[in-house]
Amino acid sequence: MPTRRFSMTTYLAFGFMLLVFVMAVIGPLIVPESWLAQDLRLRNSPPSSASMSLWLGTDSLGRSLLGRIIIGTRTTMVIAIGVLVVSTAFGGALGVFSGGASRRVDDLVMRVVDIATSFPALLLAIVFLYVFGSSQYGVIIVLALTRWPVFARLARAETLRVREYEFVKAYRVLGYSRLRVALEGFIPNVAQPIVVLAILTLGQTILAESALSFLGIGVQAPEVSWGLLVAEGRSYFRSAWWIIVFPGLMILATVLSATYLSDYAHHRAKNSNLTPGEIHV
Amino acid sequence: MRFTLRRLGQALVSMLILFLLVFGATRLAGDPVNIYLPVNASQEAREEMREELGLNRPLPVQIGDFLADIVTLEFGESIWQGRPAIDIVLERLPVTIVLALISIGVAALVAVGIGVVSATHPGSRIDQFQRFLALFGASVPDFWLALMLILVFASMLGILPTSGFGGASYLILPVIVLAARPAGVLSQVVRNSLLTEIDADYAVAARSRGASSRWVVTRHAIRNASLPSITVAGDQLIQLVNGAVVVETVFGLPGIGSLSIDAIQNRDFTILFAIVFVVAVGVILINLTLDVAYMVLDPRVRY
After folding, report:
1. Which of A101, A202, B207, B291 has the CA that lies 20 to 30 A from A234?
2. Which of A118, A251, A276 sits opposite B141 (nearest CB)?
3. The pLDDT of residue B108 is above 90
4. What is the spatial distance between Cα B247 and Cα B163, in angstroms, rounded to a whole number?
5. Interface of B with A in 175-204 (CB under 8 A)
6. Minimum-distance CB partner of B246 among A215, A238, A252
7. Any chain B CB within 8 A of the CB of A123?
8. Which stretches within chain A are classed as H helix?
9. Considering only alpha carbons, which residue of chain B is nearest residue A247?
10. Which residues pair with A121 in a beta bridge?
């Protein structure tokens, strides 16, 4: 297979991700208050170049869609990054632990991982959301519950690979403690494939959050998230197509960038246990 | 046979752990009565539910009762509809099964076609399309794709029905949405595993003995490449339930996916739990079918 260079598409994907991160950080500071005020004279106005707030049109309450998409970036990214941090830390640590632990402990951990990865993730999220209630933090916890097993499985497989390396064996012979072997031997060497999976997971978490919000069981109004914006536009979309088209394009472009970048990083990485099958999360 | 039995045993243990997790969740999140009853339930109804769930009995007894109810398929009455929850779920199940099977079938046909051509013609138009399909399928929000298709094919062109359930034309758009992701993922797996097989020693040896490339691909490589593809296809079939929740809701199809959302909106935990049970059984059946498929396809696999 030809090696992929750092191409135009890679720059584009990287640049777009950067833009999304910047919007998440400064978005709520730069969007003028007036854009988000309800204005019934402007309700469902189509995109126009008359004023910047109208570039993407307005929603059913006359609020600027551009403004709402920028505001929603933070909610969406806070959830995505929150899920990523929790599931990488928990799943990664448990995977390294399991890979270094006794056979019996390892079997038990992997059985739990098998259940969580073989059961439809969204359905599991729905059950836990029902029980724990939906809120921004509820969504983070529930989505992390469905994501950590993939990280645990990968970290374990990588640990089993690294464990056989001579230098790791040497650490043991030198009498390093188990913790030190894990910190100095395993973690630096399993990090790379974990990063690849993390970028992929960032995109997939955005998809999951927007689906939950669209279904009305994720982020709740008055919070704004991209999925919620599509849901709000659903009743008007025959006459006001822009209300669902633009937030959806935003989700698509962000997830596409993340998927592309993780694919790119995957092809650059060597010796990875990441298989195409992992791309189902 | 012994292996299959062992797999079945493992599957049952997995199911047990899953149910215990759900049980744990219902008992950890505040008063369990609130999970089973609507917010405005009367004091008597609450007391009755407390009695029914056996909340004043020791925890091991509660767990025992909970599991005994599952074994006997007693998920309780649906408070929302006033009849056994499992009946409601089983009524809605066929729609989801038909939708899922058609979608995975369409996805598999598309994926094998595109995957085989991309592997035998790397760099071609089809190969580039395969890469696009894999990226797009993994990245497009399914609810949004569904709305876009409705906008174009139902509202603007007016050639397909918007939503509802009443014949083959009602299934076209839902199947396209559901098949997008598995078609992309599967075409990638078919392509990559076929490429590996085409470069394998036995394939090089066969070609050097004069066998045509076409012969090597169709007689040897495809068969070996089918094993990883089938694993991923089974996995994608299971994960189709996720898409079904969204697609059935958007297109107004009466399956268990849209039922799970109805159950949430009506605060009906009995139905939701019955759905989890039915899906768990489905997952086990799919995995057992895969085991059998391996045995048929790969003579080296003998359980």
Report:
1. A202
2. A251
3. yes
4. 10
5. 185, 188-189, 192, 195
6. A215
7. yes
8. 8-30, 33-36, 65-100, 103-118, 121-132, 136-163, 166-173, 178-180, 187-214, 226-233, 242-268
9. B144
10. none
- Residues of A within 8 A of B235 (CB-CB) are 118, 277, 280
What is the Cα–Cα distance from B269 to B246, expressed in whole angstroms?
19
Q: State the nearest Cα–Cα gap between A131 and chain B, in angstroms.
A: 6
Exposed, middle or buried: residue A92 (CB in 10 Å: 0-12, 13-18, 19+)? buried
pLDDT tens digits, one per residue of B214-223: 888 888 888 8
CA nearest to A27, candidates A87, A73, A61: A73
Query: What pLDDT shows up at residue A186?
Result: 75
| pLDDT single digits (tens) B169-217 | 888 999 999 999 999 999 999 998 898 888 888 888 888 888 888 888 8
- Which among A118, A130, A211 is the nearest to B143, CB-wise? A211
A108 touches chain B (CB under 8 A): no
Q: What is the pLDDT, as a whole number, of residue A281? A: 32
Cα–chain-centroid distance for residue A129?
A: 18
Q: What is the pLDDT along chain A (281 residues), one digit of tens a residue?
A: 444 556 788 889 999 999 999 999 998 888 887 778 777 777 778 887 777 777 777 888 878 888 899 999 999 999 999 999 999 999 988 888 888 778 888 888 888 888 777 888 888 888 888 887 777 888 998 899 888 888 998 888 888 887 778 887 888 788 888 788 777 777 777 778 888 889 989 999 999 999 999 998 888 888 889 999 999 888 888 888 888 999 999 999 999 999 999 888 877 765 455 544 444 33
**Which residue of A lies nearest to B154 if distances are taken between CA atoms?**
A238
Describe the crossing of helices B142-149 and B172-198 by its angle, rounded to 10 degrees: 120
Cross-strand bridge partners of residue A64:
A58
Q: Which domains does chain A have, with CATH numbers?
A: 61-271 (1.10.3720.10)
B148 touches chain A (CB under 8 A): yes
Nearest residue of A to residue B156, measured between CA atoms = A238
Nearest chain A alpha carbon to B238 = A120
What SS3 state is found at A175? coil
Instruction: Tell whether B24 lies on the interface with A, counting CB pairs under 8 A.
Output: no
CB pairs under 8 A between A and B: 148
